[in-house]
Amino acid sequence: MTEHLKMDQVQPHLLDETGQGVLSVPMPRPEGPLKVTGRAPYAAEYKAEGMATGVMVRAAITKGTYAVDTASVEDMPGYLGVFTDKMVRNAAQGTMGTNPAQMGDKILYLGQPIAVVVAETFEQARDIAAVLKVDYTEDDDAVCDFDGVSDWPDSDKPDQGDLDQAMSDATFTVDSMYTTKPHNSAAMEPHAALAEWDGDKLTLHGSLQMLGYNRDEVADSLGIDAKNVRLLAPYVGGGFGSKLGMSPDCVGAAVAAKALGRPVRVVLSRNNVFEMIVLRTATRQRLRLAADKDGKLLGLGQENWQSNLPDEPMAEPVDLATHFLYGGENRRYGQHVAILNRPASGSVRAPGEAVGMLALENAMDELAEKSGIDPIELRLRNIPEKHPETGVQYSARSLAEALTEGAKAFGWDKRQKAGTRREGEWYIGMGVASAARTNILMESRANVTLNPDGTALVQTDMTDIGTGTYAILGQIAAEMLGLDPQKVTVELGDTDLPKSSGSGGSWGAASAGSSVFLGAKAIRRKLAERLGCEVEALRLQDGVATGGNNRRPLAELMDAPITEEGHIEPGQTDEDYHQAGYGAHFAEVAVNAVTGEVRVRRMLAAMAAGRILNRQTATSQVWGGQIWGIGTALTEAIEHDPRTGHVVNNDLAEYHVPVNLDVGDLEVMFIEERDDASSPIQAKGIGELGLSGAGAAVTNAIYNACGVRVYDYPATPDRIFPHLP
Amino acid sequence: MQITLTVNGAAREVDIDPRTTLLDVMRHHLDLTGSKKGCDHGQCGACTMLVNGRRINGCLSLAVMHDGDEITTIEGLGDPGNLSPLQAAFVRNDGYQCGYCTPGQIMSAKGMYDEFNKGWPSHVSDDLTAEPNFTTAEIKERMSGNLCRCSAYPGICKAIEESAEEEGLTKRKAAE
């Protein structure tokens, strides 16, 4: 049976009435022992009888056509073949469900996958790929840099009111240009695929976030029926958006395996990951704020310029949070997407907010400075009653609590005037930024099975990319069924299991979690019938059912397992309420008065994301967000060669993700909240909320420390040092 | 080429292509996939293993250079049902998320304890000629060759601090 819920109205807080007490509390991940012993298998670590190894070949020109000269390598040891058929230009975009662009012999960016070389061993394939002769015909009309764009496309975003008028009427105004460099997800596990055919049926171990969509993308790219594709990804070594869509290694491995009649494994090199997988576009952003004498916003504007390859159904939604975070009658947006011959742009953790909130929250800091209003007070004054553009009411929104309680815990009252606190050769400062991330519920299914011996099984094609899915789905089932979580087994990452929301957009926990909740709810109803009580009166705890003056161990109520499918769909509450997670980030930094070097001493995040399902894994997600904030603020920047679009720093030595010593003391606090509109489990996403605004808190702290406002990210010493007092 | 490695206490003879890295011998030839490949360039540390007791990046070393060497990989510590103190501390403190960098973090920490015992200084040591103190800053500096994009650094540091003595750290303060 299927327990189906379309989220058309707010739901009761059943999870506050169940009595097991295993939800929300910290619980170590059940798969932890496999991970810390190296026994959890990732995509490239499966074996298949007779497996060959493939290596991707990348385009060495920016734009033109190519032909591979197979004869140049046929005699090399171990050679099995060179395949160009069905090659995809880049990874698919998240939730696309169709093939990414397939270009035939055309090249649109340097680093584009153009062939897969297959040999008996990795060492052989790598050398063959290096030697393979490729004949290129180069076009001379490539455009690789913002400065080369002659014609920026117009934006189709309508204005609200008259921002120009508001700017001239205002007592205080900000009008600033910010720029951000491209970012790479840089998940630690490079994308990998092991493809094996059995007749028309393809089994593929992949490193993927959203198997239901990925299956359609693989099938569409290969021109086969999705029913003939099975994807497996029980362990994924990080995603951060880079594995939302099927990657070129999947197609390369599948095509080669079919042609050779044996399994083929293709693992992307780290350089490949920087080129063939989507990166976050560079942005230019113009921020305008118009405020009255009390700091109340009369209007705001956020216009952005960015780039992508042709025909990519994705633009960085830079202004996503700006639409609903602060009030102000007059509003202007604008999005201009140029076509550049660079690797494809796509989702990197918190698309939109990750860069949009840097500029917005820096601009708010500028306004605070100009108006002489404390940055927290300024934000509190501008929290709108209703959505300032649609008039829709908000669901749970603890932004004010996050700002004020966070400030108290952080010691915000000790913040001094900009440039006045010095310790030796270091300027010290504090910064704050709001956090906001739109909440999304997605359709999701899961099977829940309760066994007479008091064990349970959860099955869904959902993935755990480090986010804690194994832990929280087990906890939800255990809480609903009155079991120790250790008695619940969670099976994930297999398209033979019920189709889930997948991991992305911070919707995984609430969506997949709700499907498990619903499956378990159906089991509760059956148990109540068998016990002879109303389901409202049923209490399940430690394998015993109580209700209506009856008390029976589960084993006495069941002679066979009960399996129920839970199925959640978004509904009317999505229209009736504007839903988002909120929070506040605080940072204390030290800026070296001699070199301009910035060190983040400590950060605090106060987060409000509805029901927290596991305080330990949720904290880890926020730590991740804070540290990504440090990276975006201080070090992360892809540098494109302006002549060729080449990703110059296409490895982890030159693209600087934060290392252990870059990170000061981190504190995370959760604001107690239930979001009734979000889902039947009242939870919202937190993985991206933790990043939204985090980097701005760091750069605002830099300003408070030394009086230098950074407009061009990241805030490397060369951008600070020349402006020091 | 024929070489013999002592891996996790057992002698293993392998006949390998001389281009094969120590990491790929483990992953492709000995079915020891616990050591991870994150960059194949010595930049991320996911492949960290101990060679004759010292931590190295397995991807930066050719296997044929290690004929006769003693190598410890993550599989040589504990089993899922019988974790080493450091492994248990990683689970307890959520010193990971996706788990991909984790074997490298743990092997790196194992090697680091020994470097403390030997009195090696680091970039953050105040005095390069004195024995170092086992401080958070020292741990962070010495673990900065192991990237964690999930950014579990707070949990990683806590796990390393909590299990130090159990894992063989002889003293926390140089003066002791």
TrEMBL record, chain A:
Q: Which InterPro entries match?
A: Ald_Oxase/Xan_DH_a/b, Ald_Oxase/Xan_DH_a/b_sf, Ald_Oxase/xanthine_DH-like, AldOxase/xan_DH_MoCoBD1, AldOxase/xan_DH_MoCoBD2, AldOxase/xan_DH_Mopterin-bd_sf
- SMART domains tied to this protein: Ald_Xan_dh_C
- Aldehyde oxidase/xanthine dehydrogenase a/b hammerhead domain mapped to chain residues: 37-140
The domain of life for this entry's organism is: Bacteria
Quote one Gene Ontology molecular function term: iron ion binding
**Coiled-coil positions:** none
Q: Which Gene3D superfamilies match?
A: Aldehyde oxidase/xanthine dehydrogenase, a/b hammerhead (3.90.1170.50), Aldehyde oxidase/xanthine dehydrogenase, molybdopterin binding domain (3.30.365.10)
Instruction: Note the PANTHER family from the entry.
Output: ALDEHYDE OXIDOREDUCTASE MOLYBDENUM-BINDING SUBUNIT PAOC (PTHR11908:SF123), XANTHINE DEHYDROGENASE (PTHR11908)
Q: What is this protein called?
A: Xanthine dehydrogenase YagR molybdenum-binding subunit
Organism, scientific name: Palleronia salina
UniProtKB/TrEMBL annotation, chain B:
Q: Where are the transmembrane segments?
A: none
Q: What is the name attached to this protein's record?
A: Xanthine dehydrogenase YagT iron-sulfur-binding subunit
Q: Which GO terms describe its molecular function?
A: 2 iron, 2 sulfur cluster binding; metal ion binding; oxidoreductase activity, acting on the aldehyde or oxo group of donors
What keywords sit in the KW lines?
A: 2Fe-2S, Iron, Iron-sulfur, Metal-binding, Oxidoreductase
Name its species.
Palleronia salina
What are its GO cellular component terms? periplasmic space
Domain of life, per UniProt, equals Bacteria
Q: Does the keyword Iron-sulfur apply?
A: yes
Q: Which SUPFAM superfamilies match?
A: 2Fe-2S ferredoxin-like (SSF54292), CO dehydrogenase ISP C-domain like (SSF47741)
Tell me where in this chain the 2Fe-2S ferredoxin-type domain is found. Answer: 1-77
Task: Fetch the Gene3D superfamilies from UniProt.
Answer: 3.10.20.30, [2Fe-2S]-binding domain (1.10.150.120)
Q: Which InterPro entries match?
A: 2Fe-2S-bd (IPR002888), 2Fe-2S-bd_dom_sf (IPR036884), 2Fe-2S_ferredoxin-like_sf (IPR036010), 2Fe-2S_ferredoxin-type (IPR001041), 2Fe2S_fd_BS (IPR006058), Aldehyde_Oxdr_Iron-Sulfur (IPR052914), Beta-grasp_dom_sf (IPR012675)
The upper taxonomy is:
Bacteria, Pseudomonadati, Pseudomonadota, Alphaproteobacteria, Rhodobacterales
Q: Does the keyword Aminoacyl-tRNA synthetase apply?
A: no
